[in-house]
Each structure stands twice: as structure tokens, then as C-alpha cells.
UniProtKB/TrEMBL annotation:
It catalyses: L-tyrosyl-[protein] + ATP = O-phospho-L-tyrosyl-[protein] + ADP + H(+). Belongs to the protein kinase superfamily. Tyr protein kinase family. InterPro entries: Kinase-like_dom_sf, Non-receptor_tyrosine_kinases, Prot_kinase_dom, Protein_kinase_ATP_BS, Ser-Thr/Tyr_kinase_cat_dom, SH2, SH2_dom_sf, Tyr_kinase_AS. Residues 430-441 have a biased composition (Acidic residues). Coiled coil: none annotated. Gene3D superfamilies: SH2 domain, Transferase(Phosphotransferase) domain 1. GO terms for molecular function: ATP binding; non-membrane spanning protein tyrosine kinase activity. Residues 126-391 form the Protein kinase domain. The keyword ATP-binding applies. This is Tyrosine-protein kinase. Residues 16-111 form the SH2 domain. Residues 447-456 have a biased composition (Basic residues). It comes from Caenorhabditis angaria. Its EC number is 2.7.10.2.
């Protein structure tokens, strides 16, 4: 019998415990680590949950991750059913820090889980929590993280699909963890210590699409151009990270509690190199927003396929939330029309048109984004600069108090001073090279508003 060590914390309270991650994720977590480094994970199945010790060993002179089950025997635990019995899983770990486990080595230090793997004790989601929205796979409800209101995205999958959909949700979380930007939804982290996993993010006050439908005709052009600029800036950052969003639409833009527009829903996002065509039926593809080449079975996705969708969102913004290509009733007809436009020589794109309320300068940008030849479409960095110039020279945004978003029910509009502080926060933290005070083309809305105020 192994003597218990002094430490009494349970295994699932240790920093080496990564929760219900997959074998592949464990290997990713241990990539590049020296022999002996380890983590502990749980594996979910409908029959029973198991706990696994994953460590780096040297096999044929190369590092390799070995996965070994820690199995319960009565009230005790053993590794692969072989070694000395321990009264707790943490003791099994401690035992192999003192005894050889791999090819002549012991366990070294555990690899701490990422900081965005949140502890369950800080998360509260009531059974009957207020539902904020959702789709086929997930629902978004209100919850608390460290007593702060948050939005919680959780799976609603059936038992047979849960493992696959858990992977998808984790992928979405990994993407969100990479994307810290003032116009991208703030990600708190993921809950993975219990099943099903949940994504925790900032609680938003409302959606762009419903706001356009309700208030659209009353929203000043300058404010609409500001939305376009915010979205283009967010997407320039996504592109800089070599990521593709793939589901850019007004329904996936939300306003935070200060009325700031942010891009959300990274469920279909991935790095450029990983992207494959949609493995879903035509009915489920957002074809009204998709570039023609993205609808092909052999589609590849990149910044330029997102650029096309961005121009469709500009259309939703200036069309007050009307459905894109509303003269088509079904996706099949749209796909046919897109295919026709791609014929060689390319047919002029007759499909998308700017609505009459669109300022001509915005309409030109849309036309460029809807070029059949990807190479002729602008980049997001071009677009962000173009919209920035429009805000500065032609369509200044309204004063904060006159913004339509300031009147939204759950928005607490900021004062100019607070707005500037918020931007300073972004300046000081992760985005210091993004919002550069000296960079004329990228001045913040707060700076522009100040100028705007001076001009009046
Ligand atoms: N952070 C949030 N705060 C408030 N509501 C949200 C938040 N995230 C999502 N929602 C609501 O849930 C809906 C679905 O969320 P989304 O992330 O787009 O999931 P899906 O992949 O199902 O489309 C959104 O359209 C919005 O109404
Ligand atoms: Mg969505």
C-alpha cells in the first residue's frame, strides 16, 4: 500500500487536470514537452467515465505521448490494473513522480491546463436559466462566472452525437481564445471539467439584425458606416491571425452592454489551411452570404470568401435588416445563379446589388467585394481603411448620446471619458499595436467623435 502524500487536493482540483479533453487534445497539450511531463484527463462514454494519465515518454529515441488508464478497484486506484494500489488518483500521480513509469524515467512536473479552462466552482448556470438564443446544436443561456453575468453556450446534443459536437465546441473555444480584439466578443473561457462542455463569454445586450429591423430607418448613415468599420476591423484582425470566419452575417454581430458592435459565433471558423467544404446539406449552408466559389463541393475558404460575405452584411445594414437575395426563395436557385456567374468567361455578377439607401462610396466597396475573381476583391485591411476614411471625411458617426444603440433597452451608454478609457484599456493590453494613436488611418471611434465634437 502506498503511503499518502501530505497534499490533500483532489486530482480534479490540480492544475495538471485538463478535464474532458480528447486524446488528440492531450497530445497537442504535451507537444514539445520533455520526457516525464504529463497531464490527467477524463474520457466520457455513455457507459462509464474513465480517467487517463497522459505523459511524454521516449519510444525509439523519439518523444511519444503515452495514455494509461487509472482504474478504480474497489475504493482504490491502480495504473493499468498493475501497480501498487493508491487510495486516490492524485496519489497514483505522486507515486510515479518517485518511481519509474516510462522508459527509465519518472513523471516530472505536470503541464498546467490553459488559463481559459475555467473551474466549475466559479460557474453557475441555473436549470431554468434565461435563454438568449440558439440553433440546432447549442443553446445560449444566461449564467454567472465569478458572480459576473455571462452568456453560456452549451450543447444540446443527443448521446450519440455528443463526442463529435464536443470537439466542435472545443474548436470554437480554441478559436475564440486566440481572438482578442475590441470588436470581437470577449471570451471568458470554457467549462470542460464536466460534460457537456460550455463556452462562457461576455453577455451581449442585443443583436444587430433585430436592431436594424426595429430601428433601421432611424439610424444615421454615419452610425451605419461605423458598424461596417467595426466589422471590417474585427475581420482584418481575424485575417491577420490566418483565420477564416465563414459565417459572417448580421445575425452573428451583437452589441455589448455599451452598445459596441462585436463579431460572434466562431462555430464554423478555422485556420485557412484546415478548412474543408461544408459537410452539410445545401439547406443548412448560409448560401445567401456565400461567395460563389465557396459553394462548390471542392470549395476552399480564405479571407476573400469572408470579404464577399462582409459586403452582404453591409447590404443588411443599409437595407435595414432585409434578407439578402430576398427575391430568391430557395437555396438551390441561389446556388445555380452563383454557379452561372462563375462560368468562363465570368459573367458579370448580376446577383447582388446595393440597396438604394446605400451611400455610393459604400456601394463601390460592395461591388469590389462581389468580384467573381477573388484577386480583384479588397482585403479586410483595405476595407477597414476605406471605411475609416469614409467616417472621417464623409459620414462622421453621431455623438455617443445620439447613437441609436445608446437607446437600446439593455445598453448603458458610456460617457466620452469612459469610452476613451475603454479604448485606452485596449491600447494598453493585447491590442497595443492595433490601435496606434499616431496612425491616422486607424484612429478610434472615440478619437473621431472628439474631432467630430470639435468640428460642430
Ligand atoms: N454572448 C451573447 N450574449 C447574448 N446573446 C447571445 C450571445 N451569444 C449568442 N447569443 C444569442 O444566441 C444566438 C445564437 O448564438 P450563436 O453563437 O450565433 O450560435 P449558433 O452557432 O447556434 O448560431 C445569437 O443569435 C444570439 O441571439
Ligand atoms: Mg449564429
Amino acid at each position: 500500500m502506498v503511503k499518502p502524500k501530505k497534499e490533500t487536493k483532489k486530482y480534479n482540483e490540480q492544475s495538471y487536470y485538463w478535464g474532458y479533453i480528447s486524446e488528440a487534445e492531450a497530445e497537442q497539450g504535451l507537444k514539445g514537452c520533455e520526457a516525464g511531463r504529463f497531464l490527467v484527463r477524463s474520457h466520457y462514454s455513455s457507459q462509464a467515465t474513465s480517467v487517463w494519465l497522459c505523459f511524454v515518454s521516449i519510444v525509439r529515441e523519439k518523444p511519444k505521448v503515452v495514455h494509461r488508464a487509472i482504474t478504480p478497484i474497489g475504493k482504490q486506484f491502480v495504473l493499468d490494473g498493475k501497480q501498487d494500489k493508491c487510495s486516490a488518483i492524485h496519489e497514483v500521480v505522486c507515486f510515479y513522480q518517485d518511481h519509474v513509469i516510462g522508459n527509465g524515467h519518472k513523471l516530472a512536473k505536470g503541464v498546467p491546463r490553459p488559463t481559459w479552462f475555467l473551474r466549475n466552482c466559479h460557474i453557475k448556470v441555473e436549470q431554468n436559466a434565461t435563454v438568449l438564443g440558439g440553433g440546432n446544436f447549442s443553446t445560449v443561456v444566461m449564467g454567472k462566472y465569478r458572480n459576473q453575468d455571462v452568456a453560456v453556450k452549451k450543447l444540446i446534443s443527443s448521446e450519440d452525437k455528443i463526442l463529435k459536437e464536443k470537439e466542435d465546441l472545443m474548436k470554437e473555444a480554441r478559436t475564440m481564445a486566440l481572438l482578442k480584439h475590441p470588436y470581437i466578443i470577449k471570451f471568458h473561457g470554457v467549462s470542460i471539467d464536466t460534460m457537456p462542455p460550455m463556452i462562457l463569454m461576455e453577455l451581449m445586450a442585443g443583436g444587430l439584425l433585430s436592431h436594424l429591423k426595429e430601428e433601421g430607418p432611424k439610424i444615421e448613415k454615419g452610425e451605419k458606416v461605423l458598424y461596417c468599420w467595426q466589422l471590417a476591423s474585427a475581420l482584418a484582425f481575424v485575417a491577420e491571425k490566418k483565420m477564416v470566419h465563414r459565417d459572417i452575417a448580421a445575425r452573428n454581430c451583437l452589441f455589448n452592454v455599451y452598445g459596441i458592435l462585436k463579431l460572434t459565433d466562431f462555430g464554423l471558423s478555422d485556420t485557412e489551411t484546415n478548412l474543408i467544404a461544408y459537410c452539410t446539406s445545401n439547406d443548412q449552408m448560409p448560401v445567401r452570404w456565400m461567395a460563389p466559389e465557396a459553394t462548390l463541393p471542392t470549395a476552399t475558404f480564405n479571407e476573400k470568401t469572408d470579404v464577399w460575405s462582409f459586403a452582404v452584411v453591409c447590404g443588411e445594414i443599409f437595407g435595414n435588416g432585409t434578407e439578402p437575395l430576398s427575391h430568391f426563395s430557395d437555396n438551390k436557385d441561389i446556388m445555380e445563379a452563383l454557379l452561372k456567374a462563375m462560368k468562363i468567361p465570368p459573367q458579370p455578377n448580376e446577383l447582388h446589388r446595393s440597396c438604394p439607401e446605400t451611400p455610393p462610396e459604400v456601394a463601390i466597396n460592395q461591388k469590389n467585394c462581389w468580384e467573381i475573381d477573388q484577386n480583384l476583391r479588397p482585403t479586410f485591411s483595405d476595407l477597414a481603411q476605406r471605411f475609416d476614411k469614409l467616417l472621417k471625411n464623409m459620414y462622421p458617426p453621431p455623438l455617443l448620446e445620439d447613437m441609436s444603440t445608446s437607446k437600446m433597452k439593455r445598453v448603458k451608454p458610456l460617457t466620452i471619458a469612459e469610452y476613451e478609457l475603454l479604448n485606452k484599456y485596449h491600447l494598453d493590453s493585447e491590442n497595443d499595436d492595433y490601435f496606434d494613436d499616431d496612425d491616422e488611418a486607424m484612429s478610434t471611434p472615440a478619437q473621431r467623435r472628439k474631432m467630430n465634437r470639435k468640428q460642430k
